[in-house]
Design goal:
This protein is 9% helix and 36% strand. By secondary structure, the chain is mainly β. The protein has a domain of 137 residues: Tachylectin-2, Chain A. It starts with 6 loop residues before the first helix and ends in a 13-residue tail after the last strand.
């Protein structure tokens, strides 16, 4: 015989089902608060977005706009060819730096044959800044033309009316064509050099220091590979890039709309072989971090400082300390992020490249702290959060 459930038990079950339904609706409602997946940084681990997908924004930079952080980076793909641009520049957003929403592709590659940003070109280290005067979001990135390896050595411009895009490609160029560095000695202009000098010899280093490669590219514009953007306190913007066959860093002033070069620039440490520049400012002092040139393999970071962005710049050595500091914790600098709402809080953003499977590249985010002398220092942490800046 089938047993009949009591009225009390039946009412209790109904109440439980109703409560479960309410909880489910609250969790699924678009009006409910965003579910928090992360509350700390774990350098080198898989970094998931709010869809539980590994964030694909390599060689990136971050723009803070209207209380939101926007992370732009290279969209990598798997396997061989994954370091060429198959998709474009990605964008993610966050209000807390821990949890990132995928905003899609901000700048897609072109399907038009011959386009500068044709699918299969090289798009690296995209950075975006906002121009208060024009209301435009301005993106610059390192561009290599399809099928030409790294011969083009161009910087490229795209703009948008919306922070997440879509961005419209405008142009690519080699900057500062037919312009001398503003502090370049008059007696060295148009000096004749033996272009067959053997590399890495004392005479060759002397010629590089004097500007042999810079003069070589004078007419068509200076090479621009690994790059960075920096907006100063007065609203002036600067484009920092590795030039002269990656031997010398250039700092170039951008026009007021951030969409071109004024022609004013300097050379930093000619022959120093620096790339991956990342610049920040604290207490009126400019700090510039860079790496050596060892391809996809990590090396020891270098740090420089100056009281003016135009120099003189002086070396401070490696800011990283501790185990694996000589390899920058197996990473390469891409950006230094000022944390909003916290005094003297900066985050080192680096990439741990995986050229055999580019999409699996990891992100190394570490706090920048300052020793007793005021020098920036980067220590390794397996896990950390923003409260470290409150101590």
């Amino acid at each position: 015989m089938r047993k009949v459930k009591s009225t009390t038990t039946f009412k209790t079950q109904l109440a439980c089902f109703a409560l479960l339904a309410i909880v489910t609706l609250i969790r699924c409602s678009p009006e409910s608060k965003e579910v928090k997946y992360n509350n700390s940084f774990k350098p080198g681990k898989i970094c998931l977005d709010t869809d539980s997908v590994h964030i694909n924004a390599h060689g990136g930079g971050i723009l803070y706009h209207h209380k939101t952080y926007y992370w732009f980076g290279e969209f990598k793909t798997a396997g061989q060819g994954g370091n060429t641009a198959q998709v474009g520049v990605s964008c993610y957003s966050s209000t807390d730096l821990y949890n990132w929403k995928n905003e899609g592709i901000a700048l897609p590659v072109s399907s038009e044959p011959g386009s500068d940003i044709e699918k299969g070109s090289v798009i690296e280290r995209p950075k975006v800044i906002y121009n208060e005067k024009t209301g435009k979001f301005v993106m610059w990135f390192h561009l290599e033309l399809k099928g030409q390896g790294y011969e083009a050595a161009r910087t490229a411009l795209a703009v948008s009316n919306n922070v997440t895009g879509p961005y419209t490609f405008v142009k690519s160029l080699r900057p500062n064509a037919q312009e001398w560095p503003f502090d370049y000695p008059e007696e060295l202009k148009n000096k004749a050099y033996d272009t067959e000098l053997k590399w890495w010899t004392p005479d060759w280093y002397k010629a590089i220091d004097e500007g042999m490669f810079m003069q070589r590219d004078f007419e068509g514009g200076q090479m621009a590979r690994d790059m960075q953007l920096f907006v100063d306190d007065d609203g002036k913007a600067y484009h920092i890039h590795s030039s002269e066959d990656n031997l010398t860093l250039h700092i170039s002033e951008l026009t007021d709309d951030y969409q071109d070069f004024t022609g004013k620039y300097i050379r930093i440490f000619p022959g120093g072989h620096n790339e991956a520049p990342a610049l920040f400012k604290k207490d009126g002092i400019y700090y510039l971090m860079a790496s050596g040139c060892t391809g996809w393999d990590p090396n020891e970071a270098r740090l420089f400082d100056a009281k003016s962005i135009w120099g003189p710049w002086k070396p401070l050595g490696n800011p990283c300390v501790g185990e694996e500091a000589h390899l920058t914790f197996h990473s390469q600098s891409t950006y230094i992020l000022p944390v909003q709402g916290k005094k003297d809080a900066f985050i080192y953003m680096g990439d741990r490249w995986t050229p055999e499977n580019p999409i699996d590249g990891r992100y190394i985010w570490l706090p920048i702290q300052f020793d007793e002398s005021g020098k920036p220092v980067i220590n390794w942490y397996d896990e950390w959060n923003l409260s470290i800046f409150d101590n």
